[in-house]
Amino acid sequence: MQEFLISAKPDLQAVREAWLKMLARERRLSALTVEAYERDTRQFFQFLTGHCGGAPGISDIRELRPADLRAFMAFRRSGGAGARTLGRGLAAIRSFLRHLERRGLVNAAGAAALRAPRQPKSLPKPLTASDARRVVSSGEQLAEEPWIAARNAAVLTLLYGSGLRISEALGLHGSDLSGDGDTVLRITGKGGKTRLVPVLPIAMQAVAEYRRLCPYDLDRKALLFRGARGGPLNPAIIQREMQKLRGALNLPDTATPHALRHSFATHLLGRGGDLRTIQELLGHASLSTTQVYTGVDTARLLEIYEAAHPRA
Q1: What is the reported pTM?
Q2: Which of 186, 199, 252, 257 is deepest in the core (most CB within 10 A)?
């Protein structure tokens, strides 16, 4: 891509700078994410400079058609950008155009209608044991309200300590983990499959601290984890908190809430847990699913085989 000294007119540059500052200060995206969005939009402006015959301004952005966006994606693809890079770049442009639309400057419908490149399927990578402990620590939580910080720590601890899906953790009721000697949860997962999941003392302590600080009445029949206004806790809230933790703790983008469940299984296997037990704990219908999910390699399978088979 040809580099231009001036890739956008002052009005467009000014509104982009305001958008980037908003991402960092109000939405609290990590510095790396903001840097990536800055780079993606700068590359888009540079493409438009050559595509339109001059540095673009807000009036040029207003006149963009889906065909212009597709031309940019094709240009980036021809330069070797993969599906993930293209998808992130499109997300950055959409975010910027929505920012302009909220201010009445453009119509972002064209970008919204453009389909993102199909992403290759991959399993979440597990966190290291030390990183997982930092993520679930109450002292590392970033929420200013103590009860919300305690809530986030409790949810994340259940994902890592018991291997729950986020939907399963947020589906718990006030009668669950009440401290009345209940160290095992009965979880109904995908396909209505029910399983028993042990709960570590540290998870019980995290939930107890959340109960102590929560300003709402945690009725036994109502949902245990609440949003800031007392309603059901939305999974997107926990996902955003994990995103903030990634930036604060310098974790990779693969550190997601679901990666904590993956880490639970992987760390159990690494400490000698057998696949069949892990399968039951995760609620998988087949052992092959668990084998792929936990990232078992041939060497580890041979180690288990040689240790267990009577003729090995």
Answers
A1: 0.57
A2: 257
